[in-house]
Amino acid sequence: MNVSKEQIDRIVRDVIAGVGAQNKATQAPQAAAVTSSSAAKTARAAVLVEPRKFEIKEFPIREIGEDEILVKVEACGVCGTDVHCYKSDPFGLTPNVLGHEGTGEVVKVGSAIKMDSVGKAVKPGDKIVTSLLETSPDCLVAKYNPAKANLSDDLKVYGLLLDEPDNHLNGYFAEYMIIRPGSSFFVVNDMSVDLRCLIEPAAVVCHALERAKSCGNNPLNFRTRVVVQGCGPIGLLMIAVLRTHGVNNIIALDGNPDRLEIARSMGADEVINYKEYSGIDEIAEKVKGLTKGLGAHWGFQVTGVPAAHANLYKLIRRGGGICEVGHFVDGGECAINPHRDICAKEISLVGSWVYNSFEYPNAYHFLQRAERIGLPVSSLITHKFPLDQIDEAIQVNLRQEGIKVVVEAK
Ligand SMILES: [Zn+2]
User: Mean pLDDT across the chain, nearest whole number?
Assistant: First the structure.
């Protein structure tokens, strides 16, 4: 069967735009939205009004349109990006209702919406998570290469949108959220609220795994020896997704012994506390000792420290690969040696940026499978705070206590 590029593009575009949206065009809108009985009139939201200052404000819940959904928020994880926003380094997104790792219960469904983004029926009472919003119609990346929509300059997610006069409920650090037209969203009823809060960061590591796998001559399989550098929430999920994917021989690298213990529970076979070594050369010797004298096949760089990127090359064998997934903000520069580090080793180097909406189902299956094989991923949530203690939630994150901090909408 011959399938044209246009047909493939259309299929990918439909998956990204959401089967619900596609379905919408063929369904006659009904007169009224489908509502559950407990809809409130107002919603409290934690508004970042200026850098380092939240105010809990109460907004009226506006009427939703026929292609919108009203969600009663349950909980939302605090991301490193939220903390950067809070400190205004580098984003200056104020005023803004933050929170993009959230989940909640559908309260009201616009009459034109029948299904979620993979064709599952949606109704009041369903538990959902959201992924990317549609980019502007002028975005050429999304138009001609929708499988790479994550590279659009116009990338949008809830929780990172500026407050608008008529649209306050744009993020999950609030009691209610409105899902607007063109959003991708998924019904995930059969999952605990904790796991649902981890779907968004899980999508980040699923995307990184796919990026590494895109280097076809350098597979990730049962025999692959991998170093994961950095054991924050994303690094720990990275270890879990590699393990769930069948990769053994995972070496975790961090300077925090508590995090290294958690790394073991996520599937790391060996842990290295870099603070116990005199420098990268000594660490490289240790890694060689664990990898038949050759170094690791793959390294995943999951810190925001530029020098850590430069160091990682020294832990990788000739013909190996590096996936950079730690620098979500510009942390500065580092010096590498193009001859020794890249050329002479024939290193496959890939960057990984956010995720695409169609990777959410992968993230869902990864988390479920991880728990089933005994990786306690939901235990990565170490702290929970109510909405009016959002400041403390951010401070705990800033102090790097625990792993994943969650804000509950109560
Ligand atoms: Zn995030």
Answer: 90
User: Is 110 exposed, middle or buried, given 0-12, 13-18 or 19+ CB atoms closer than 10 A?
Assistant: buried
Span from the CA of 243 to the centroid of ligand 1 (angstroms) = 22
What's 137's domain CATH number?
3.90.180.10
Q: With 0-12 CB in 10 A as exposed, 13-18 as middle and 19+ as buried, what is 37?
A: exposed
- Dist. CA 100 → ligand 1 center (Å): 6
Q: Is residue 282 part of a domain?
A: yes
Which pTM does this prediction carry?
0.90
Which residues keep their CB under 5 angstroms from ion ligand 1?
79, 81
Check: CB of residue 320 under 8 Å from CB of residue 299: yes
Q: Report how many domains make up the chain.
A: 2
DSSP secondary structure letter of residue 343: I
| C-alpha triplet 229, 84, 233: angle, nearest 5° | 35
CATH of the domain at 257: 3.40.50.720
Question: What is the span of the domain harbouring residue 108?
Answer: 5-190+378-408
Name the percent of the chain lying above pLDDT 90. 78
